[in-house]
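Students often ask why we bother encoding 3D structure as a string. The short answer is that it lets us treat folding as translation between two languages. Here is a chain of 441 residues written in the first language.
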Amino acid sequence: MDKHSFNQGLLQFLQQSPTPFHAVTTMQSTLHTAGFELLQEEDTWHLKPGGRYLVQRNGSSVIAFTLGSGDPAESGFRMSGAHTDSPCLKLKPNAVMPTSPQTGNALQFAVEVYGGALLAPWFDRDLSLAGRVEYRRSDGSLGSALLDWQRPLATVPSLAIHLDREANSNRTINAQKDLPPVLALQASAADFDFNRWIIDALSAQQSIDDVDSVLAHELYFYDTQAPAMVGLHEDFIASARLDNLLSCYVGQQALLADDSTQAENFALLVCNDHEEVGSNSSCGAQGPFLRSVLARISAQLSAGDAPEAVERMIRRSLFLSIDNAHGLHPNFADKHDNNHGPLLNQGPVIKVNANQRYATNSRTTALFKSLCVQSEVPVQSFVVRSDMGCGSTIGPITAAGLGVETIDIGVPTYGMHSIRELAGSDDAWYLARVVKRFFQS
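And here it is in the second language, the structure alphabet:
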């Protein structure tokens, strides 16, 4: 696949994936079309050498893997991981806020901030809503469905500069008070039936017409502005959720492109939910999802004692933790270490931290740099300034939980955790070439 086709596919994937649920559904459809068999965790698995499989948990995390013909305890897995969630505004359970003449009879939804969102860019955007809804059918059984209104439904209006003269110099944002989006103007909240609105959406979007009541929801606001190629020479990709759906797409495309020696390769992609809030969930990187899948693979394909076979397999494996890195911002160059400010469109970034906020070590660095040389792809390094704090990824969590050798990598990005982020138009394609070679190694 050439760079243009790769980037157009990335834009389409971003557009189709406003929430982790939609991202996993989109990935599952693509992988299934490519011949990956869907497994259910509650069923008995019948894995075959040379097979291609996928399994999801909670509808928001997914693992896809290909099996070689040998014993995975002897060869290990080539694994890459990313995360499906992004910082955003999530609807509270009792979504409709009271209206009053004092608030201009504005219909607003109550929200809480999911993850470490950069809040200022959420103002004055055309917002829509998407996510998952649980409901009860008329016969008493339970159902679940994804919804996505796709069109602009709401906005968080800024306060005019005339009413806040210090807005450009001394503004703080109160998440409880300042962020509830405005959806309509009406006499009272009683004029809007939220449950009826959801039921109508289930009928219109999913042709589900036997809904008795709405029981719960996980709905998220998102920016309706479409992903785009930006710049005089289309140097950039601009979109919401580049952190970290870009990495999910890179891993997926690399796995799909690994068609050289399936009979020899054991390759795996895991995309976890909840990284932005600590990964501490049943489907997050701190949960048992990945180890559970590896144990089941080993139980069917490895010879010898089961616990020992799993550990032997892990010790022969390598894990790429793929998450975006902070690109050198031209207006804030002093926020970077002078020798470690990654440039956009100059290749993937190796992320290093002495305090193990990233799982990179010298051995995994050497292996990744060697893959970049073989792929004819430039490579960079990122280290945070010594007087600044450092974020983290699923890398250290996975390394500590499994004991697998791990390296943290990613593409350099501007505006991380903003409602609209910016990456170089060369870098994801570069990285996919390296990850493809990694899966084939």
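Translate back mentally: The chain has a mean pLDDT of 94. Keep this in mind for the problem set.
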